[in-house]
Amino acid sequence: MKDGSGYDSDGCRFTRTAREIAESTARGRRRWRARCEEAEAAWRELADWHQTTTEVFVSVDLRECDASVRDLKVSFAPYSMEIWTTWGGRAKGLSGTLARRIKTSESTWSFDGEELMIELVKDDPDSVFQSVFEDGRGARTHTEVLKDMVDADEAYAPSDEISRESAELCAQMRERLGALARGEMLDPSDDLDFKLSLSLDGL
Question: I need a labelling partner for 61 at 20 to 30 A (CA). Which of 28, 30, 87, 124 fits?
Fold first, then answer.
């Protein structure tokens, strides 16, 4: 009996026929396409993203599709991104109008045989994405967005050179992070005004 490890129950190695491989690939691609039809499933099961102050990085899992770079196409416009596959056409749940404007000439994509990696370059480095798409697909909580910005490995201006408004925002961020570290509940309506659109001039 085969258990998916490449060996049967007696410890003997087995190989799949070309037909079995083709059938398995077709099943994987059908499952992938079905999940892409439904935005919530696409972002829960296939895609993830994070950002820095200048870029948004999106990753899409394609392991079950046995894809090559020739099977994929990603196109960019200032306010949109489209992902296409040879087996499913436009990936509906992973394509559409972006939440913010991007620089199309600098945005890129690559594929390593398992994962599609997309780099969206923000048109305005002071903007913050709370979701990838305008309609909220790929939305992250304010805490997750704040963590991205805190973790961003970028050079910042010295604290004595930032504006008073930026310094006040930093103080609020420190208070919120301290509260989170102590396990205190934060009021979801207290947005920090999510003008963490980073009015942190140069921060």
Answer: 124
User: At 155, is the secondary structure helix, strand, or coil?
Assistant: coil
Q: Do the Cβ atoms of 16 and 57 come closer than 8 Å? A: no
For 69-100, write each residue's pLDDT tens digit: 999 999 999 999 999 999 999 999 999 999 99
**Vertex 96, ends 95 and 99: CA angle to 5°?**
120
Q: Is-above-0.70 flag for pTM?
A: no
Per the CB < 8 A criterion, the answer to whether 79 and 133 are in contact is: no
CA 110-60-40 angle, 5° bins:
150
CA distance 197 to 25: 43
- Let me know: does 91 contact 137? Beta carbons within 8 Å: no
Where do you find CATH 2.60.40.790 in the chain? Answer: 12-136
SS3 30: helix
Q: Does domain 12-136 have CATH number 3.40.50.720?
A: no
Return the amino acid letter for 54: T
- Please state the rounded mean pLDDT for residues 122-135: 91
